[in-house]
Write a structure and sequence with these properties.
This protein is α/β, with parallel strands linked by helices and 219 residues long. It is built from 8 helices and 6 strands.
Length: 219
């Protein structure tokens, strides 16, 4: 009963804002209860190891979604893109080019499913699958690639698509841009013209990775 009265006094002291009285009450409680053996001034509500385990769980970052894609132009090397959705809902892009399958596999390790066009990269995809990487066919048809192109444009305009400023990837993207004249009427189609040798496979790999993200239900 005496302990219950002390607890009631603590509650009333807390409500009244009586700091010194609260300190005295807590000190008395620690002296007359098993909680006085706690190493801190005020008793803990769970063991130290339990606090440590809970904190480690809370501090773990949420899993990050990842996708990747490869694309080869008329000439080697292979262009590869890794796309990762960070916890801030932004998409980070990493770009790589290589002629070595081993270097390509090392870059794509842990990158999530890897999109490839079966019309041009089946051999490379089979080599990546042989070392344990997950490859997914992604046909670069107009109907298949258009939603990815629109989503990538939206992410760029909203500042959600970030990359390290890779000069080669930037060049590939610029080669895709239409620098010609607009169509004279809505019924006239106008396609961008590129000079011979201008590569766009890095930009295409980026679109394919975005396409995988869309297929998995990402916004």
């Amino acid at each position: 009963m005496n302990l219950l009265r002390r607890l009631c006094f603590v509650v009333h002291a807390t409500r009244a804002g009586q700091g010194e009285a609260l300190d005295r009450a807590l000190s008395d409680l620690q002296q007359c209860s098993p909680l006085s053996q706690a190493p801190t001034r005020y008793p803990l509500w769970m063991p130290a190891q339990a606090w440590k385990n809970a904190a480690s769980i809370l501090n773990v970052a949420p899993p990050v979604a990842k996708w990747a894609a490869i694309c080869t132009g008329r000439q080697a090397p292979v262009s590869a893109v890794k796309l990762a959705k960070a916890a801030s809902d932004r998409y980070e892009v990493l770009f790589y080019q290589t002629e070595s399958t081993d270097e390509l596999a090392a870059f794509l390790k842990g990158a999530g499913p890897i999109a490839y066009d079966p019309w041009r990269d089946t051999t490379t995809a089979m080599a990546l699958s042989g070392v344990g990487l997950s490859v997914v066919p992604f046909r670069c048809t107009v109907a298949n690639i258009s939603p990815a192109m629109q989503a990538a444009r939206q992410w760029v305009c909203e500042g959600q698509l970030l990359h390290s400023g890779d000069a080669v990837l930037t060049e590939h993207v610029l080669h895709v841009l239409d620098k010609g004249s607009p169509p004279s009427s809505p019924h006239t189609q106008h396609y961008p013209s590129r000079n011979a040798g201008q590569r766009i496979d890095g930009a295409l790999a980026l679109m394919m990775a975005v396409g995988l993200a869309l297929k998995e239900g990402q916004p």
